[in-house]
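Comment thread on ticket #2218

A.B. wrote:
> Attaching the input chain for the structure job we discussed in standup.
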Amino acid sequence: MKKFCVKCGAELSEDAEFCSKCGNKIESSKSGTGKKKVLPFVIGGGIGALVLVVVLVVVLLGSGTGGNDPKSVALEYCNAQYSGDADKVIDLMLPDEYDMLQKYKYLESFKKGIKENKPNKYTCEYEKKERLTGDDLDEVKSYLSEYVTDLSNVSEVYSVRINITEDDKNGYANIFVIKYGNKYYVDIYQSLFSFAKSNSSR
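C.D. wrote:
> Ran it. Output below, let me know if you need it in another format.
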């Protein structure tokens, strides 16, 4: 059976770990844990909604600037993603995953994908943020443990909702912002975008 990237739709080879077009990490169907990965936030959008798991690159601690608060980091990330500013996207991302894309040599294709896939027009507007606690925080940290080498650097986790318009689509993003060390960064694997194609009301 053919495999396709959930982010850009490109056809994938059977053993692909990342999409060669956009850099998206491909989840393996051969999980040894048997655990189904269900994120703690459910994305809606009605009929025709398309949920895109945005897998983005992150910077080494000390290499990227990150940001000083969850709201501004989420908005800057959204605007950088949609304007095609790959360097800014990279600058706002968590540590450790940058190493992963370097290791698998997908950094350049990731940057190219951001630059080439920007929409003709877009808006990103902040709606709200929520600091995760309890079971939601534990679940996010369990995912983080798969790609963050030192969880002791993670002190806060937020879900920031951004309302988005992109060409003829309305949607929103739950952008996960992590306080890592003394700065805030966007978590690549758990930031979700949802769009419902519509030319009328949301």
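A.B. wrote:
> Thanks. Noting for the ticket: The chain has one domain: 49-195.
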